[in-house]
Amino acid sequence: MNSVYAAAPELGTEACRSLYRKLAAGVTVVTTCGLDGEPQGLTASSVTTLSLRPPMMLVCLATTSGTLTAIRTRRAFAIHLLRAEQTALAAAFAGSSGSGKFAGVEFQWALGIPVLPGTLGWATCALADERRYGDHSVVVGSVISVSDGRGEPLIWHDRRFRELAARGRRDAFAEN
Known about the structure:
- The chain is α+β, with helices and mostly antiparallel strands.
- It has a single domain, classed as Pnp Oxidase, Chain A (Roll), CATH 2.30.110.
- A seven-stranded antiparallel beta sheet has the order 3-2-6-9-10-5-4.
- The radius of gyration is 18 Å and the shape is globular.
């Protein structure tokens, strides 16, 4: 073993949690359909694109998640990118489990999956793979359809919802 790692102190959960909170991420809602035919979903920030050819996305979900259980069964899900003004929607889906999260929320069905109109965009996915790592599973979806909206993304950073900086500021890459 490398001596640098051998000398490192034991890593605690709180130290990792503190570091992870520094990661800024777009806020998403992941939806699917439960065994009872009712929509299910949750707020997630560990979501990213995986491949363009073929189009694929991935999301990390807690292994105890009811939404993950439903995705395993239905083998399909949708990922919704939230707009900056959709903090209430993000908070609603971050709450307790169950289809009650959809109470008062407008949604439509696409390919048997509940989708949320008015978001920054969404993708419906067929489950391609799932692998467990620690207390989460990496869920890979083959993108079936997309809807691309307008607006600015809602960001999660340091346990708070945030927006991008004001538009008047200079883009760091604009001059390159």
